[in-house]
Amino acid sequence: MKALHIAIKDLLITLRDWQGMLIFLVMPMVLTAILGAAMNSNFTDAPSLGQFEMALIDEDDGELAVALRAVLDTPLLKSLIRVIEMTEAEAIDRIAAGKLQVALVVPQGFTSSVYAGNDASLMVLKEAGSSLRPMVVQGIANSFVEYVSAGRIAASLAVRQAMLGSSNIDPMQTAGHIVEQLHALILQFREEVAEPHRSLISAFQYYAAAMAVMFMMSAGGVGLESIAVEKRNLTWERLMASPTSPVYMILGKFLTVLLVNSLQFMVLMLGTTLLYKVSWGDNMLMVVAAGVCYAVAVSGLSLLVAALLPLSKAGLGVWEIGVQACAALGGSMVPLIIFPKVLQQMARLSPNFWGIRMFTALMGGETLQLTHVLPLLAIGTVALCIGAGHLVFKQRSA
After folding, report:
1. How many CB atoms lie within 10 A of CB 192?
2. Which one, 64, 128, 219, 302, has least CB within 10 Å?
């Protein structure tokens, strides 16, 4: 409660600087409008996926696995997917390293299960956070399983008529029934491949997320400024020497930045939704939770910088330089897809990367996953522990 009391007091002091808060609220909205309009041509309603790699893991080596390879070798899919064969362990390693987005596994006994009339399925392995390309592969897998199951339709129809004592099976009727089923399946297959509607986001959606994470990090300087003012006025030392535990003081500053960031995100989310008709996702509670998770990362980093750097104007300048570096590296300025692969891997060092990835996944129809929030919570927790430990140790040894 003491930490929360300190946080609320600092928050009220921060809100008095309405001109500074106005910049943090208005500038992201303005930049979202400018960049969203300027980059709109690069975010079409039906963007090209481009050719991408898919690992094929054949543990079955049966006739249907050969048929699947033939399907993937058709001109429609060959122009979209470059198939590379490897083991499941190799695919998992490459996906974990960020070198592969999706793998398709043909499990052992797949052909025999289908021929025996049992349920059978193909398994899709995907990189956490990826949605569009794995979804296309999932559609192909589902359609292929349904397609080969059409053979069971014919067999079951023939057996059923034979059991009814009908020796005169009308070939035209049977063929018509099979063609009808296959026609529906092929249409579904083409629709899955050609029109993967989910996970397509607009330029305004992307830059709403990108500007939100950049300005939330910039607002993390509020905590630094608060501690800097108290140190200049010698208030910080008196507070740390007071009966109030230093831990409460540190948690109070952490909560101050957390509250400022959370409030800022709520305003930006509502503003972009109302003014630009930006959809942040199907579940607003998940979106708010995502915003709080990113605020945790920013708050922890803010306290870490406060602990390690002298909080002069130079120290605050270092924070602003770091904000711009993280924004450029993490994709807040331009989408990471146009970066070289080396820079795309380096982008993972930036909280902006994880924030944008999390928000765009929600915008694309995904649910909030642990792989989205764990990196941000880890950044915030580790930074908080290191910063708090350093401040307490320095104060006790003074």
Report:
1. 18
2. 128
Angle at 391 between CA 388 and CA 397, to 5 degrees: 135
Q: Is there a contact between 54 and 104 (Cβ–Cβ < 8 Å)?
A: yes
Beta strands 52-58 and 123-126, pairing class:
unpaired
> 344: closest CA among 354, 357, 330, 327?
330
Tell me how far apart the alpha carbons of residues 384 and 322 are, in angstroms, rounded to a whole number.
17
Cα distance from N-terminal residue to C-terminal residue, the chain = 27
What integer is the mean pLDDT of 135-146? 77
Structure tokens at 209: 């997320």
Q: In terms of Cα–Cα distance, which of 267, 224, 214 is closest to 26?
A: 267
Q: How far is 229 from 206, CA to CA, in rounded Å?
A: 36
E-assigned strand segments in 127-216: none
* Residue 124 bridge partners (DSSP): 104
Q: What are the φ/ψ torsions at residue 222 (nearest 5 degrees)?
A: -60, -40
Stretch 372-397: mean pLDDT:
83
- The pLDDT tens digits for 172-187 are 454 445 445 444 444 3
- Tens digits of per-residue pLDDT, 306-318? 777 765 566 677 7
* Domain locations along the chain: 2-42+200-397, 52-194
Structure tokens at 301: 């980093």
Query: How far is residue 366's CA from residue 200's CA, in Å, rounded to a whole number?
Result: 11
Q: What is the pLDDT of residue 1?
A: 56
**Rg (alpha carbons) of the chain, rounded to whole number:** 28
pLDDT tens-digit series, residues 56-96: 999 988 887 888 888 788 777 787 788 999 998 898 888 88
Distance CA 195, CA 320 (A): 42
Strands of 81-85's sheet in order across: 81-85, 52-58, 102-106, 123-126
- Side chain identity, residue 161: Q
Closest CA to 95 of 132, 127, 52: 127
Task: Read off the tokens for 264.
Answer: 């800022």
Cα(284)–Cα(281) distance, rounded to whole angstroms? 7
Domain 52-194: give its CATH code.
3.40.190
Q: How far apart are CA 143 and CA 153, in angstroms?
A: 15
* pLDDT over 70 at 38, yes or no: yes
Distance CA 14, CA 308 (A): 23
